[in-house]
Amino acid sequence: MTACPTIRLMDVIGKKWTFVILQQISYNGHSGFNNLLRMIGEITPKILSQRLQELESEDIVRKDVSDVKTKTTHYALTKKGVELKQILDNLRVWNTKYSSNKTDCPTRGCVNCELFRN
Known about the structure:
Elements: H1 5-13, H2 18-27, H3 33-40, H4 45-57, E1 61-67, E2 72-77, H5 79-98
Antiparallel strand pairs: 1-2
Helix pairs in contact: 2-5
């Protein structure tokens, strides 16, 4: 991995689904893996697992184990993740301001947007 902080950051948050995962964790509080998988819908379990591990390793997302016996986990934004969400919210405002489509996103996320899906 490169020493450039910007490139390193983009290696993590620039991957497909990462913003959507962050949005879902942010908007839905503590979300478990299966709940995230169900809410996002089109992501594979393998990709979701990889993205969550990357976000955890960068201290953007925290994984809490609420029941050791059933291995029930929940994901939440860390302080660093909350600050990143504020930046993402500013990007949304900026994009709305300069987009040719002047309507604000009614779903507050990309998960339900038909334009996001391939």
